Amino acid sequence: MKTNPPSFRPAASPARRTFLKTALVAGLAPLIVPGRVLGRDGGVAPSNRIALGGIGIGPRGKMVLETMLAEKDVHYRATCDVQARLRTEWVSRAEELYGKGACTAYRDFRELLARPDIDAVLIATGDRWHAVAAMYAARAGKDVYCEKPCGITIGLCQSLSDTMRTTGRVFQAGTQRRNVPNFQFAVHLARSGKLGRLHTLHASIYKLQVLHDWLPAEPDPDPNVIDWNMWLGPAPWRPYNKAYVVDRRWRGYYDFDSGAKLHDWGAHTVDLCQWAGNFDDTTPVAFEPDGDMIRARYANGVKLELRPAGWIGQPAQSNNANFAVGSTGTCPVRFEGDEGWVETGDNGSIELHPASLRQEWRAFVMRGTDPSRHTREFLDCVKSRGTPAANHRVMRHTHIACHAAAIAWQLGRKTKFDPATEMFIGDEEANRMRTRAVREPWIA
Amino acid sequence: MRMKSKFLVALVFTAVVVLAGGDAAKTRELLAQLQPSSPLAERARACQQLAIVGTTDAVPALAALLGDAQLGHYAREALEAMAAPESDAALRAALLRLEGPPLIGAINSLGARGDTAAVPALATIAAAADESSAGAALQALARIGTPDALAPVRAALGKNPVAAEALLVPADRLRAKGRDAEAVELFDEVRASRAAGALMPATRGAILARGAAGVPLLVETLRSRDAALRSVALQAMRELPGESVTSALVAELDRLPAEVQPAVLAALVDRGGPTVVTAVEKRAVAGDDAALTALGRIGRASSVPLLLRALPTSETAQRSLVLIPVREADPLVLGALATATDRTTRGKLIAVLGARGVAAATPELLKLAQGVDAETRRAALRALAATTQPRDLPALIGLSAASEDDATRTLADRAIYSAAMKIPEPGRRVDPLLAAVRAAKTPAERAALFRPLGAVVRAVGGSSAALATVRESTRDSDGVVRAAAVRCLADWPDATPAMELLVLARTETEPTRGLALAGAVRLATNVAAGRDKAVLDALDLLTSANALVASDAERLMIVSAFGNLRRVEALRLLEPYLQHEAVKTEAALAVVQIAPALLGGANAAAVRSTLEQIAATERDADVRARAAGLLKGGAPTKKAGKKKQ
Q1: Do B266 and A349 lie within an 8 Å CB cutoff?
Q2: Considering only CA atoms, which of A375, A386, A393, A377 is closest in space to residue A165?
Q3: Number of domains composing chain B
Q4: How far away is chain A from the Cα of B109, in angstroms, using its nearest Cα?
Q5: Is residue B621 part of a domain?
Q6: What are the start and end residues of each CATH 3.40.50.720 domain in chain A?
Q7: Complex ipTM, two decimals?
């Protein structure tokens, strides 16, 4: 399978949202030709609409789903959540768009997946559910847009990728920066040789952390209001506390989050590094933790540095010690070659060297957090059966690279990794950390 | 010699421990924590650590927990992770005594471990009446994958719907190992069962396992009336390797149902290769829209004239001209622009040149931007935003000055901004604009430059040279220049001009006065909220601004700003607004925002008193509830931190 070449030209397939955002930028936005002008829009017959279902649509899911709802060829027909409040909210939203009775709510996603009239699902639950729910969806014949991190262990990422491959479903991981122009531009510079021979790739990450405590036990809620057992799903049982569900205080927990929080940004930034270095089909072969950062190395000698600090414009005493914010914004990446380097982040700005590289610069206004082009690509692939940018193969290697780095950091030692077998070499403890049994009756 | 033996024994022991991945000392510690007297969370954590470092010494204790409603899964997590055969034995033994979810868990773990010794027991469970455990057993047997394990799964085909899906795992594994004939047999068996959920992946597997011989099945599936099956064929089309396969599929393209052809063409494009390009070009000549789309991805130099020919009537051709990955397209499109006669085609060509960022097109675009046709002028300005370089700035500034309306000027300003931002050194990006301000012949020309200048200043995070020029212009004798300069200062990226804006808010007349005040409040708010680290007293700035507010809209603005000051003085400043009908709710909200920082300090009594007033009288239920919550001593509900995705 071929790796998609980076295409940062803004006129390729911009979604309406991008255009609207562009139009709002104080009259000084760059040239972006709206999709409508290029004939991608217009009336869509109901039979040509993609019937969409949503599973676990919280704040991030809302951001993603709204970009899908803005597309005329989408009909949101089913919503599923373990919280009654969110079920009601999304049914109301769908009714605003399509009228009364347009959308059905479910507490158990298997009922939603059993509907033959649903074509695709957006999975935006907490991390613990992503892989398992996505595999159930694929086996039920649905195409899947799955928020990242897509699997909380190496084993789950492997199973997810294998399932997507064998079922032939369209899969897009929610690593939308593959479809954000400034990141595509930076990757283009790296892959086209304009930086010379690449030697070091830098990926920003959260400050790493693993929590193991349990919040104080509270009485189990009415499952019609909050279904705690279903919320836990494949994760280990623990007593209920409202904060996990309502305040989303599950982040950082070993049982619920992914790889010591490394994937929170790493799923994006390592992904971009893998793409820039043409490593979509492999992972680094060595990992070495060093304080808050992890140094990794690919088989061809290219280095990958995962770090929360040291970005251009990042104050020494950052407001938020948990993650990096430099002059290019959040989620920065940097690609270095022997003839130049480029650094970019979520605010669209680009720092680069040598100066001649600026000749190709564009005013990139799309934020790195904006999934609109990414979701549009997914929808296009649902129709064409094409392969989206963040497909299961890309997800697999990026996520496994992140997990392997996080495992090395948790063990506090150097590890060697075999990308072919996706196993650590000579480190049984690290290998044991590759998988975790999912809670019965769920199966990966 | 004896020492040497001891050393060897120790070495062998260490090697055994390392291979088994266990740590005997840690295991002992963790087993102590696993005792029933330990807190539940500690026992759960001990299991999870045993999953990483546990030795076989832990197996009995873990096995004893397998049926535990709360810890059973934790224990299984540890047993599943240990490579030792003792784990398999413990899980197998558990099959006899467990039931319900714990039994399913044990079955799943044996499947994950590929325990061949479990096959007889699993086969028995698979044949039993309990649907859940039978289904889990079939899946486990399929994962184990030996012939004797697969026999009961194959036998269950058509009887238990799980069987078909379960068999996909070993079938796929056989294919991965190159045992294609066996894989084909298994995939075909599953296909024949027509089991829902398994038919599609089995069809895909059956096509791929056949290799080049799978083309007939692939074509047959592409002709299927079932859209889901067709989608699997399209997927398989992209995966089946070989140029001969590509040629066979290209040859078949025209014979497929018309409604399938665009998707098949897209899949062929993903396969790539010269045969595909030739076929696509042939269809593009006939105006096939899918082919025109495809040329955007795989077109070659010879494809550009085809697209140019289709351009007047095809938007797809325009899109593909933007995307086509060949350098030869740039001069060809530019050449076409020189000869294009109708306005629509010219507009499309200009848009293509802009979207491709063709720097060589800039001189022509600059000419067109000065032409007689307004639509072409605007199209050229749009394209210039992508193609221009810093050397074009004087020309662009001239175009901006000559713009007939604000929309055209906005386009010109975008181009100016883009060109300035291409200057390598961030500190020099404002220089051409500052020079233009100094050289401007009329106040209107000078005023117009502050908009692109402001945009560049914001992009580079501030500029002392620009600040000096803008400051000077706030004292210009011309009101239009002053207003433009004040607007520029009001949007300054840091708080440096905050004091100056306050002075202007006192001395200027409307609407410049209002702009200056709003700017001062914005910059002071950034300082108060910690977004701007300038060494300025936000309280002092906002107190001064407070004295200048003259309308309800400005009152709302200042009250909202006070909410960012975590100081008791802000509370005092807010008090009069709590009685002001137009802004009282916003004022109450600001108090609620400030209060948590003050409730523990010397002014707690005053804060409580204000909160009581809000809790008793505020109209907005949410604000009222938040005030009441603070009075009860509870911290306000802490929302989870917004996480960037």
Answers
A1: no
A2: A393
A3: 1
A4: 7
A5: yes
A6: 16-177+371-393
A7: 0.88
Element (H, E) at A50: strand A50-55
* A167: nearest CB among B44, B201, B319: B201
Q: Domain limits at B585?
A: 564-633
**Residues A276, A190: contact at Cβ < 8 Å?**
yes
Question: Measured between CA atoms, how close is A326 to chain B, in angstroms?
Answer: 12
CATH of A16-177+371-393, one of 3.40.50.1110, 3.40.50.720, 2.60.120.620, 3.40.50.300: 3.40.50.720
B617 is a domain residue? yes
Q: How is domain A179-209+258-368+397-432 classified at the CATH fold level?
A: Dihydrodipicolinate Reductase; domain 2 (3.30.360)
Of A204, A247, A245, residue with least CA distance to A221: A245
| Tokens coding B283 | 């269809």
Cβ pair B489, B500 in contact under 8 A: yes
> Terminal CA-to-CA distance of chain A, rounded, Å?
25
User: pLDDT tens digit string along B78-118?
Assistant: 999 999 999 999 999 999 999 999 999 999 999 999 999 99
Amino acid occupying residue B629: G
Longest dimension (CA), chain B: 103
Residue type at B75 in one-letter notation: A
Pairwise CB contact (< 8 Å): A254 & B263: no
* B598, part of any domain: yes
Question: Could you read off the pLDDT of A427-437 as tens digits, one per residue?
Answer: 999 999 999 99
* CB atoms A440 and B102 under 8 Å: yes
- Identity of the residue in A12, A385, A432 whose CB atom sits nearest the CB atom of B234: A385
The CB-side HSE value for B123 (13 A sphere, CA atoms) comes to 17
- Other C-beta atoms lying within 10 Å of the C-beta of residue A356: 11
* A435 to B323: CB separation less than 8 angstroms, yes or no: no
Indicate the residue of A331, A349, A441 with minimum beta-carbon distance to B104: A441
Q: pLDDT at residue A241 above 70?
A: yes
Q: Over the stretch A353-412, which tens digit does the pLDDT of each residue have?
A: 998 898 888 888 899 999 999 999 999 999 888 899 999 999 999 999 999 999 999 999
Q: How far apart are the first and last CA of chain B?
A: 63
Judging contacts by C-beta atoms under 8 Å, the chain B residues touching residue A236 are 44, 48, 73-74, 77
What was the pLDDT predicted at B606?
Answer: 85
Q: How far is B47 from chain A (nearest CA, A)?
A: 11
Put simply, the chain B residues between 156 and 175 with a CB less than 8 A from any chain A CB are 165, 168, 172
Is B584 domain-assigned?
A: yes
* Whether B563 contacts chain A with CB within 8 A: no
> Angle, nearest 10°, between helix axes B538-546 and B498-507?
10
Give the distance from residue A33's alpha carbon to the nearest chain B alpha carbon, in angstroms: 8
CB contact under 8 A, B204 and A213: no
A-B Cβ pairs (cutoff 8 Å, strict): 208
One-character DSSP codes across B17-45:
HHHHT--HHHHHHHHHHTSTTS-HHHHHH
Asked whether the beta carbons of residue A166 and residue B44 sit closer than 8 angstroms, the reply is no
* Per-residue pLDDT, A335: 98
| List of chain A residues whose C-beta atoms are within 8 Å of the C-beta of residue B228 | 141
Q: Does B143 touch chain A (CB under 8 A)?
A: no
Residue A325: band (very low, low, confident or very high) from pLDDT cuts 50, 70, 90: confident
